Amino acid sequence: MTTTSRLDVTKTYKLLIDGKFPRSESGRTLAVEGASGRVTSHVCHASRKDLRDAVGAARKALDPWRHATAYLRGQILYRMAEMMEGKREELAEAIRTGAACEPGSDVKAAKGAGGTRALANRKVSADDEVMLAIDRLVTFAGWTDKYQQVLGCNNPVAGPYYNFSVPEPTGVIAVVAPDAPALLGLVALLAPVICAGNTAVCVAGESGSARLAASVLGEVIATSDVPGGVVNILTGVRSELLPVIAQHRDIDGVHAANIDAASAKVLREGVAENLKRVKVREGVDFSDEAEGASPWWIEPFVEIKTVWHPSAM
Amino acid sequence: MTGERNGTDMATAAAGQQDSAMSNGEPGRALVATRRESLGRAGLDFGSAWDYAPAPETVKAPIAERYGLYIDGKFVMPTGKGGVGKGKSASGYFETINPATEGTLSRVAQGTAADVDAAVRAARKALPKWAGLKPAERGKFLFRIARRIQERARELAVLETMNGGKPIRESRDVDVPLAAQHFFYHAGWADKLPYAFPGRPAPRPVGVCGQIIPWNFPLLMAAWKLAPALACGNTCVLKPAETTPLTALRLAEIFEEVGLPPGVVNIVTGDGRTGAALVEHAGIDKIAFTGSTEVGKRIASAVSGTSKRLTLELGGKSANIIFEDASLDQAVEGIIQGIYFNQGHVCCAGSRLFVQEGVLERVKTKLMIRLASLRVGDPMDKNTDVGAINSRQQLEKIREYLEIGASEGASLCVPSGEGGRAGEGAVGSDAKAIARASSAGLPEKGFWCRPCFFADVQPSHRIAREEIFGPVLAVMSFRTAEEALVRANNSPYGLAAGVWTDKGSKIFEVARKLEAGVVWLNTYNRFDAASPFGGFKESGFGREGGMQGLRAYVEV
User: Fold this and answer.
1) Same-domain check for residues B435 and B544
2) Is B347 a catalytic residue?
3) DSSP of A202-233, one letter per residue?
4) Of the given ranges (A93-102, B218-227, B449-458), which has the lowest mean pLDDT?
5) What ipTM does the predicted assembly reach?
6) B313 is catalytic
7) Are residue B306 and residue B330 in the same domain, yes or no?
8) Which 305-364 residues of chain B touch chain A by CB within 8 A?
């Protein structure tokens, strides 16, 4: 027997920090409206403290992750893709559901400052976007044990030395995702970062769909084999979180794309703080598979280490 | 390269003596280098038998009375207007000296904002033709430059030593040959760039590059900056360091000789204000800076609101780690090369020495003996190991750190003033040791600091954390490899590191875990045009040299 009067159990999605799902320590939430304007769910409204906690978790997770074998990292990224495949419907639904965030929240202020704006991207359906995101992850699962051979080399020095250069992960990277595409934007920025052995603190885009998609992705990650703290996901407001990212001395780099100019400026100013490597991409077409699969998306988040040793009998 | 091997064997001349001192000594005997205890009996006293007759370099490098700015293929007078340039000299020139004698060598132009503007305009004007030149032809210009540097090598070395204070042996065997190699190496890249960037078949030049270089390797840094930029089709405005402009200006003469098109390289001399004008100029597409982390951060801040690209090669406090199973005599030689090369004015200097506990006393003893045999003095003498400190300002900074180290409780170890006589030494944390480091037995004129090290250093000491940029080493100990790694990596810097052990598996594991852009294993301070150089963390970003060094000068 079915009942038409059953009340939906609406969900409040939580943050992903250190492999666990805490609510924001601030207790704040943001509502996500469906296409009809009805509130379908809530996500946590991450605070500066949540961000700092996430950075701490990412730092703690860094050494085991970067020193794991490349083969293992590849298998874990592939496992993540497998788990996404199993949640294709839920991910697509998340993208379809969130049309805009509740009016009157902090987001409004961010909008005023040129905040939420979905930049031009080729229109793809939610289903196609999910498939593109999964395929992007698979691509980088395959890169984990190859980019070193493309970006590194042996160096023919003019002396009796053996000399080689290898790329090594930069460290803790803040991933600042665009408002659209909701899922693909985040995955495309995150995959090259963790592929290289960095750990990530992600700030989801400010559209409702970006927040929901990021939250669902967090649930996927937690149930795949990704070690806790390697990927941390925050839903919140850029104008609050980005200055903390810029000033945080334990964040080594930033990967962002298609965000507003004010946000980009805040992030770029962080270079002067601790020489963090800041890569803010503009006008990215995330559905361009050839571009997005390039090792030049990994290269900004590796450091070239050159090793010398004398060679003699 | 034309018969010059690596050109970086800067300590080989002295190494032979050191070896014999070691084999005749008592390597097994642990000598305790505690405060105020003389290490004098550790070595052998050869009396004056090791004193060298003077061997001055005789080649002369003519220097003009005055140098203008090199803009658009011509030497031009500075404008002396435009907001910078005032206060130094009414006529728009300032004196450049020989730090070993304090005598004036020449007067060079203080570039103003207007001069920088003229230089940037010249570079912009020259860009389309230079970038559009057939790449192989571009490369041929660089090959020619490399050849002319080699042919004028001795003159350049003499000039470098006169203006910067570094021993002629180093400028002759390291700086100049490497500068030539950088042009030669990058010349060949000009028509091969698509092969350097997989999947990016058409790398394009960035545009007009503003390049600011330091005073520690004046000609070599000019080569590091200019060669890759030119090979990739960019045009440049180079700002040499305030205290060492002469070899860059001599390089401009070489550009004229080889017929480099006007405006492709422009050289604007001056002080920090000239550099600031360059950084702030709206017509610059890329800034490349080598210098202190403090200035680097200011530049990063100035550039952050613009679309200018940026690479920074900044300071360091590099760790040199010696394990018990290292070949100790070799390691001590590496320490010497690591920290006393070029008076310690080296961004990647191995200024933090970590010695495994069991060999700490032996290493300190050997170090003291070796230090006493380093000849400090006239940079133009071919037997000199340690020349003059680059400037009075730098000498004052070094002396300040000597006092800081002593007041923090570390023990300053300084060899005696009698160069070449092994085994005499002074250990202590008092004013006497500091005075000995900077005056006793040294010429009255000029800026000098005797090579020395601090023992009993704690990781929290400022001398263990901050870049001194002088011939001052901080010696610390460790017990396990894990501890060495944690302490070596516990620094905001990450430029270079050294590891000494004869155990292959250990050396590669330590190398893998060190957070440093260059890791020297059983060697130190080796450089090559084919080998990328640059730092992790706050030592900057971007690489110079090698295939990876091209990345900063192309859009892919």
Assistant:
1) no
2) yes
3) EE--SSHHHHHHHHHHHHHHHHTTPPTTSEEE
4) A93-102
5) 0.90
6) yes
7) no
8) 305, 310, 312, 314
